[in-house]
């Protein structure tokens, strides 16, 4: 189900189009499941902030239960739910959130 305020992408071509057509903005894709509590919590936060970031970011939800989306789950090696992937001008933005060993 996802958020009523954010678009939910269920087909590969929808994800492809979102990545390709979002120019000069960051595209935030939340990969998850509508029935997962953590996803619902993140969806609420993303929906509440989507208007505030709308000048520089677009947010969409990606339904991980869709068969067509499995290609992205495999490509990005998504193992945790929810997972948030960022793109800018059709390029995946790799982010290192760091860990305790990288700080020592």
UniProtKB/TrEMBL annotation:
Gene3D superfamilies xrefs: Glutaredoxin
Database matches in InterPro entries: Dim1 (IPR004123), Thioredoxin-like_sf (IPR036249)
SMART domains assigned to the protein according to its UniProt record, in alphabetical order: DIM1
Assigned protein family: Belongs to the DIM1 family.
PANTHER family, alphabetized: THIOREDOXIN-LIKE PROTEIN 4B, THIOREDOXIN-LIKE PROTEN 4A, 4B
Name listed for the protein in its UniProt record: Thioredoxin-like protein 4B
């Amino acid at each position: 189900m996802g958020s009523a305020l954010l678009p939910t992408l269920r087909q590969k071509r929808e994800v492809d189009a979102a990545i390709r057509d979002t120019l000069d903005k960051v595209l935030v894709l939340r990969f998850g499941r509508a029935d997962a509590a953590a996803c619902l919590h993140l969806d609420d936060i993303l929906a509440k902030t989507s208007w505030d970031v709308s000048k520089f970011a677009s947010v969409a939800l990606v339904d991980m239960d869709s068969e067509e989306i499995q290609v992205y789950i495999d490509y990005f090696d998504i193992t945790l739910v929810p997972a948030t992937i960022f793109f800018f001008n059709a390029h995946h933005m790799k982010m290192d959130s760091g860990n305790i060993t990288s700080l020592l």
